[in-house]
Amino acid sequence: MADIETLELISAGSATSGWERWAGGHGTFSVEGDPDGATLKLQMTFKDSPASTDIIDVGSDVEFANAVGVGNFDLPECFLRANLSGGTSPSVTARVAKRG
Q1: CATH class of the domain whose range is 4-99
Q2: pLDDT tens digits for 17-63?
Q3: If we measure between CA atoms, which residue out of 32, 22, 27, 35 comes closest to residue 78?
Q4: Contact (Cβ atoms closer than 8 angstroms) between residue 73 and residue 82
Q5: What is the pTM assigned to this prediction?
Q6: Exposed end of the chain (fewer CB within 10 Å): N or C?
Q7: φ, ψ for residue 18, nearest 5 deg
């Protein structure tokens, strides 16, 4: 059985996470909690780039039903963050997981 590496980007929080290094490969972005009208996106950037790119838009690309949303991705080595914006009083946990 393969090991699963998990990186928690937001823990029951209401703000955008910092950038975390992603070694590259297949991953899963999972979200749970109460977005309370907030927008949540998985974003990527490269080491020396100030620009970020939306990879998964929770609620648009991924259904956020029963307080849980899951989306898959395949990316090269990069940096990832969970971008949380808007909402009245969101409280979400966002993670990325990779099989290794």
Answers
A1: mainly beta
A2: 999 999 999 999 999 998 888 888 899 999 878 788 888 787 676 65
A3: 22
A4: no
A5: 0.84
A6: N
A7: -80, 170
